[in-house]
Design a protein that fits this description.
By secondary structure, this protein is an alpha/beta fold. The protein is built from 36 helices and 34 strands. The protein folds into five domains: 240 residues, ATP-grasp fold, A domain (Dna Ligase, domain 1, 2-Layer Sandwich), CATH 3.30.1490; 102 residues, D-amino Acid Aminotransferase, Chain A, domain 1, CATH 3.30.470.20; 133 residues, Phosphohistidine domain (Glucose Oxidase, domain 1); 157 residues, TIM Barrel; 135 residues, TIM Barrel (Alpha-Beta Barrel), CATH 3.20.20. β19, α19 and β20 form a beta-alpha-beta unit. Bound molecules: adenosine-5'-diphosphate (ADP) and magnesium ion (MG) (2 copies). This is Pyruvate, phosphate dikinase.
Length: 883
């Protein structure tokens, strides 16, 4: 197999498609050389040589070394210079280059090939003695650091001393003589540290640098980076050896970096920096303050130093031509390195530039308008998950921050408000129009109303999948969880963090994107959902097959979801409605009732409330499908757990406290997740499901009469494991429907279906489908029950599990395709096998995860359902999955 690939002089043996073989840098250098751009000639040693190097015990295989020398002769031919030549030496750079850019790999060595003899030759050939010695001292410094492993401070200290002795502050203040003396010092440093002199043989230098690149692939830094970024060890790195061009030849020379568009805003304007009389890394290393590329950018920044446009007009124009050419060729925004050697432009690197979500969106939409890419390509250009950054108000980056604590960035967005320490207070203050931040040690289902009322949620404990985090993400509320330095004192209604005390009512700001907690109010900026965002969404909708619904239970959430383009409700959790303060007492009376009559009386009180809820939702959804799940959680979730709570409930319900205590004791469960919940409630207390079904049908009839539009409720039974469970509960629902239709004289179409959230249900999907008109995969519970992992207790071990590759990703975030996914696939197949056109959807957290959405597309489900704020992400991800 071919191991060494040449490029330059108007030709190339590789191209941009060969990143696996040549690494990203090498492939793009070849591509640029191939399309006739000015690229210094060079050679790329292929990535597969990396493994061969290790197999040979840290040595370049002989035949590869031979090919390198042959390619080097080609470079000599193109440049007319010779490697190691005393009068006209060829100098090269040795550059690493993996498939993807990898900080943590070896740094580049520039000016390789210089020694005590060739430096004189370079001085004569260039007519610039200072430049020659400056290059030599840079080379010793880089080679010493990168290849010989010497501490770079040794060299930097010597350089500082030289400048001090001379009384100058800039490197450019040193003349040829000073630099020559510095080279002497550098060589002494090397010899002292190593016990042998700096290598003078250019070939020895070359093999040393190539070996160092391959060697760096297995450095600790590189290994860590690979682990964090899922890059396999087997990829290996390529090595590029390239003829040097010099930006440090004087005032007609320069080096720079540029983006063809602004990477933070996406604006179509050249964006970059350059430095006159400088080399390679100088621009990014901050040795001197870089100058702007364009006059406009310089003026905007109020900078004095001439822009490249002003200082080197002709080369700048040429650079602009190259930018346009590269964008036209790659059809994407490019991140570029260039050098100007004595008025002549050379390209040293190009790649697709990293960009913010905002820039990605703007660039994709602009490029469609410019005719560079198609609408479908634009849809594929914007990372779906990154849209999240654009959907929430964000903190004004220019505003000052007084950070008082840090936690996990659990739910994106920013919020400011007055600190409150319990959910009832949160709700009262919010109702009075005040913006509040709910601060809790941790949250529980009883906090739902407070979380909903709050602008943001802060917890002292809990991880990224804690109750607070999951619920906050679902509601689109910013959340910082697990801010460990916070401790709350409920007695004095204050919290302390890092020695500071904040009392209830004081204002704080949360940054859900970073986990910062700040004192006071930090200004925010609202997201813009029209313009580019709207355009991209229209294109996404054209290409997607999957429908996107939302998980929502309040009219407010439904409105948000519709604004984001939801095509229905996939999951309306009725229990959230029970927590409303106006109803919780009736709910508790129903639960605490000791007989059916008592329960029925309490349920009768709840009926009008539920009916009103559903009617409002049907109105907002205006004929779109609405899936309503009947009561699911164990009843004790609606009850208090402490003495104060018992007394309160007793007072509110008018029951004896002793009875309250006893009933709550009876309702206790060892493992509520697997306990008396879901359809098991509907089987044991059919009157609960009957009341809910009645509320649904009465509301549907009401709204249908009101609007004249069809309302098609989809009634969903949770936690079914066997066909008989569904058969029994469906009979209750159908009976209520019949009664309501008879009473109102109106008949409506409706569906009854079930969640598939237990492995047994997935396995017996064929028989269950006999009684179901739709399945909705409840992949949260299905993941818990298939993996035997409780989501709320997983934080302790899931991290290490993912790190050790036991699960590739957090299975609660991205569906476990091999396990849970197989059950979903099997249930879909078996269900459709008996009932053609059985409607299939997914309503777990996974419904908003792009990877899981792609999986749903492969299974040809009908829809995904996710929290309102994830609807646009799901729309885009569904389109990408279909393309
Ligand atoms: P990195 O991947 O860290 O950017 P590079 O290999 O791209 O490393 O090189 C570092 C710097 O050296 C860049 O500014 C690059 O433009 C410059 N450089 C690399 N090779 C040459 C060369 N042959 N001539 C001039 N400058 C070079
Ligand atoms: Mg680079
Ligand atoms: Mg469930």
């Amino acid at each position: 197999t071919k191991s060494v690939f040449k490029f330059g002089g108007g030709t190339a043996e590789g191209d941009a498609k060969q990143k696996e073989l040549l690494g990203g840098k090498g492939a793009n250098l070849a591509e640029m050389a191939g399309i006739g751009l000015p690229v210094p000639p060079g050679l790329t040693i292929a990535t597969h040589v990396c493994a061969a190097y290790y197999d040979a015990g840290g040595k370049l295989p002989d035949e590869v070394a031979r090919d390198v020398l042959e390619a080097l002769a080609f470079v000599e031919g193109v440049t007319g210079k010779h490697f190691g030549d005393a009068s006209n030496p060829l100098l090269v750079s040795v550059r690493s280059g993996a498939r993807v850019s990898m900080p943590g790999m070896m740094d580049t060595v520039l000016n390789l090939g210089l020694n005590d003899v060739t430096v004189e030759g370079l001085a004569t050939a260039s007519g610039n003695e200072r430049f020659a010695w400056d290059s030599y001292r840079r080379f010793i410094q880089m080679y010493g650091d990168v290849v010989l492993g010497l501490d770079h401070y040794l060299f930097e200290d010597a350089l500082e001393i030289a400048k001090e002795d001379k009384g100058v502050t800039q490197d450019t203040g040193l003349d040829a003589g000073d630099l020559k003396a510095l080279v002497g010092r550098y060589k002494a440093i090397v010899e002292q540290a190593l016990g042998w002199p700096f290598p003078q043989d250019p070939h020895e230098q070359l093999w040393g640098a190539i070996g160092a690149v391959f060697g760096s692939w297995r450095s600790d830094r590189a290994r860590t980076y690979r682990r964090l970024n899922d890059i396999p060890e087997s990829w290996g790195t390529a090595v590029n050896v390239q003829a040097m061009v010099f930006g440090n030849l004087g005032d007609t020379s320069a080096t720079g970096v540029a983006f063809t568009r602004d990477p933070s805003t996406g604006e179509k304007a050249w964006y970059g920096e350059y430095l006159i009389n400088a080399q390679g890394e100088d621009v990014v290393a901050g040795i001197r303050t870089p100058q702007y590329l364009t006059k406009a950018a310089r003026e905007k920044a109020g900078a004095k130093a001439a822009s490249m446009e002003e200082a080197m007009g002709q080369v700048f124009t040429e650079l602009g031509r190259v930018f346009d050419l590269l964008e036209g060729h790659y059809r994407d925004m490019q991140d570029i390195e260039f050098t100007v050697e004595d008025g002549r432009l050379w390209m040293l690197q190009t790649r697709s530039g990293k960009r913010t979500a905002k820039a990605a969106l703007k660039i994709a939409v602009d490029m469609v308008a410019e005719g560079l890419i198609s609408e479908a390509e634009a849809v594929l250009r914007v990372e779906a998950a990154a849209l999240d950054q654009l959907l929430h108000p964000t903190l004004d980056p220019k505003a000052p921050r007084d950070v008082i604590a840090r936690g996990l960035p659990a739910s994106p967005g920013a919020a400011s408000g007055a600190v409150v320490f319990d959910s009832d207070t949160a709700e009262q203050k919010a109702r009075a129009g005040e913006a509040v931040i709910l601060v809790r040690t941790e949250t529980s289902p009883e906090d739902i109303h407070g979380m909903h009322a709050a602008r943001g949620i802060l917890t002292a404990r809990g991880g990224m999948t804690s109750h607070a985090a999951v619920v906050a993400r679902g509601m689109g509320r910013p959340c910082v969880s697990g801010a460990g330095s916070i401790s709350i004192d409920m007695a004095t209604r204050a919290m302390s963090c890092g020695g500071r005390r904040i009392v209830e009512g004081e204002r704080i700001t949360l940054d859900g994107a970073t986990g910062d907690v700040m004192l006071g109010e930090v200004a925010t900026v609202e997201p813009d959902l029209s313009g580019d965002f709207g355009a991209l969404m229209v294109w996404a909708d054209k290409h997607r097959r999957l429908k996107v619904r939302t998980n929502a239970e309040t009219p407010a959430d439904c409105r948000v979801a519709r604004q984001f383009g939801a095509e229905g409700i996939g999951l309306c959790r009725t229990e959230h409605m029970f927590f409303e303060p106006s109803r919780i007492t009736a709910v508790r009376r129903m639960i605490l009732a000791e007989d059916t009559a008592g329960r029925a009386a309490a349920l009768a009180e709840l009926l009008p409330e539920q009916r009103a809820d559903f009617a409002e939702i049907f109105r907002v959804m205006a004929g779109l499908p609405v899936t309503i799940r009947l009561l699911d959680p164990p009843l004790h979730e609606f009850l208090p757990h402490d003495d104060a709570g018992f007394a309160e409930v007793a007072a509110a319900t008018g029951l004896a406290e002793s009875l309250v205590r006893r009933r709550i004791g009876e309702l206790h469960e060892f493992n509520p997740m697997l306990g008396h919940r879901g359809c098991r409630l509907g089987i044991t207390y059919p009157e609960i499901y009957a009341m809910q079904a009645r509320a649904i049908f009465e509301a549907a009839v009401l709204v249908a009469q009101e609007t004249g539009e069809a309302v098609v409720p989809e009634v969903m039974v949770p936690l079914v494991a066997t066909p008989r469970e569904l058969e029994i509960t469906k009979a209750v629902i159908d009976a209520e429907a019949a009664t309501v239709f008879a009473e109102t004289g109106t008949t409506l179409e409706y569906l009854v279906g079930t969640m598939i959230e237990l492995p047994r249900a997935a396995l017996r999907a064929a028989e269950i489908a006999d009684h179901a008109q739709f399945f909705s995969f409840g992949t949260n519970d299905l993941t818990q029950t298939t993996l035997g992992i409780s989501r709320d207790d997983a934080a302790r071990f899931l991290g290490p599990y993912v790190e050790q590759g036991i699960y590739p990703k957090d299975p609660f975030v991205s569906i476990d395709e091999d396990g849970v996914g197989e059950l979903v696939s099997l249930a879909a197949e078996r269900g459709r096998g008996v009932k053609l056109g059985l409607k299939l959807g997914i309503c777990g957290e996974h419904g908003g995860d792009p990877a899981s959405i792609a999986f749903c597309e492969r299974l040809e489900l009908d829809y995904v359902s996710c929290s309102p704020y994830r609807v646009p992400i799901a729309r885009l991800a569904a389109a990408q999955a279909a393309l």
